[in-house]
Amino acid sequence: MCTSKMIKYTCGCKYEMEFEQCAKRQGTNVKCDPITKEFGKDGENYCPKHLVEGDALSENVDDDGEVRG
Fold first, then answer.
1. How does pLDDT run across 54-67, given as a tens digit for each residue?
2. Domains of the chain: which residue ranges?
3. Quick check: pTM over 0.70?
4. 52 confidence band (pLDDT: 50, 70, 90)
5. What letter does residue 33 receive in the DSSP assignment?
6. Cα–Cα distance, 35 to 3 (Å, whole number)
7. pLDDT at 54
């Protein structure tokens, strides 16, 4: 069965990180139905959609690196 390996980020989002065709489908443009989903790894940070632009940090952190409330 074809397998979609997923990554789970610390923000809770899950995305496909790799797709593997089964031996029967390799070399074709066909995928199994349904596709097996499994976790490939846990991400070490937030997903790209939940990260803010670099200049946003400077607006919320004081000169000592402490987060302003």
1. 766 655 666 666 66
2. 3-60
3. no
4. confident
5. S
6. 6
7. 72
Of residues 64 and 4, more confidence is placed in: 4
Which residue bears the tokens 């400077």? 58
Amino acid at residue number 32: C
Contact (CB, 8 A) for 17 and 6: yes
CA distance 69 to 63: 14
10 vs 44: CA distance, rounded Å: 6
Burial class (CB in 10 A: 0-12, 13-18, 19+), 38: exposed
Instruction: Give yes or no for a contact between 7 and 14, defined as CB atoms under 8 angstroms apart.
Output: yes
